[in-house]
Specification:
about 200 residues; alpha/beta; Rossmann fold; five-stranded parallel β-sheet; 8 helices; about 15% strand; globular; binds adenosine-5'-triphosphate; binds magnesium ion; APS
Length: about 200
C-alpha cells in the first residue's frame, strides 16, 4: 500500500501529448494458450506499425520473465503478479503515446479485467485480442516442446494441460489462428484500431 505518496501531475496534458506526438496511446492485449500465436502476431504487428512510422513496442511474456519478472514463477499468485505488473507497464507505455502490444498467456479473467480497469481509469484504450487455437492444434505445433514436457510431467502447472485457461468472454477481437494467416491477423487488428480512431495512417 502506498502511504505518504502524492501523485505528481505533469505539465503536459494527455490531449496535448497526443497533439504533439501526432499519435494516441493504446494497449493491444493478446491472450491465448501457449503456441496459439501471440508472439508471432505481436512481432508481425509491431513490424507493420513501425513501418507505418508508428511508435510501437512489444512486451512479450518470455522476454519480460527474463528481466523485470524474473523473480516470478507459474503458480497462480505469481501469474497474478506477472500480469498485474504487465498491466501497469503497458499502461505506462500507452500513456506515453505508444502502441503497446502485450503477448502473455494471461490465463485468468480477473487478471485481465484488472489490466483493463487500470487503462480505463486512465482513459486509455484497451483492446483485448483472443488469440485462439484448439488445444489439439497448439499441441501439434509445440514450437518450444513445452506441451511434450508438460504431458511427461516435467513442467507443472502448464496452461491447458495442468493449469486453467479462462477464455475471454467479450474480447474486442477474436482471431482463430488455425483458420487465419498471420498477415490477416495483422490486418484485422490494424483495421480495428483505425475504425475506433486509435490509429490514423
Ligand atoms: N496463423 C497463425 N498465427 C500465428 N502463429 C501461427 C499461425 N499458424 C502457425 N503458427 C505457428 O504457431 C506457433 C505460435 O508460436 P508463438 O511463439 O507465437 O506462440 P505464443 O502464443 O507466443 O506462445 P507462448 O505463450 O508459449 O509464448 C509458431 O510456430 C507459428 O509459426
Ligand atoms: Mg510467446
Amino acid at each position: 500500500m502506498a502511504v505518504n505518496i502524492t501523485f505528481h501531475p505533469g505539465s503536459v496534458t494527455s490531449t496535448e501529448r497526443t497533439q504533439l506526438l501526432l499519435q494516441k496511446g493504446v494497449t493491444i492485449w493478446l491472450t491465448g494458450l501457449s503456441a496459439s500465436g501471440k508472439s508471432t502476431i505481436a512481432c508481425a504487428l509491431e513490424q507493420h506499425l513501425l513501418k507505418l512510422h508508428k511508435f510501437t513496442y512489444r512486451l512479450d511474456g518470455d522476454n519480460i520473465r527474463l528481466g523485470l519478472n524474473k523473480d516470478l514463477g507459474f503458480d497462480e499468485k505469481s501469474r497474478n503478479e506477472n500480469i498485474r505488473r504487465i498491466g501497469e507497464v503497458s499502461k505506462l507505455f500507452a500513456d506515453a503515446g505508444c502502441v503497446s502490444i502485450t503477448a502473455f498467456i494471461s490465463p485468468y479473467l480477473a487478471d485481465r479485467a484488472i489490466a483493463r480497469k487500470l487503462h480505463h481509469e486512465a482513459s486509455l484504450p484497451f483492446v483485448e485480442v483472443y488469440v485462439d487455437a484448439p488445444l489439439q492444434v497448439v499441441e501439434e505445433r509445440d514450437p518450444k516442446g513445452l506441451y511434450r514436457k508438460a504431458r511427461a510431467g516435467e513442467i507443472k502447472e502448464f496452461t491447458g494441460v495442468s493449469a486453467p485457461y479462462e477464455a475471454p468472454e467479450a474480447p474486442e477481437i477474436h482471431i482463430k489462428t488455425d483458420e487465419t494467416e498471420v498477415v490477416d491477423a495483422v490486418r484485422i487488428i490494424t483495421e480495428y484500431l483505425i475504425s475506433r480512431g486509435y490509429l490514423s495512417i
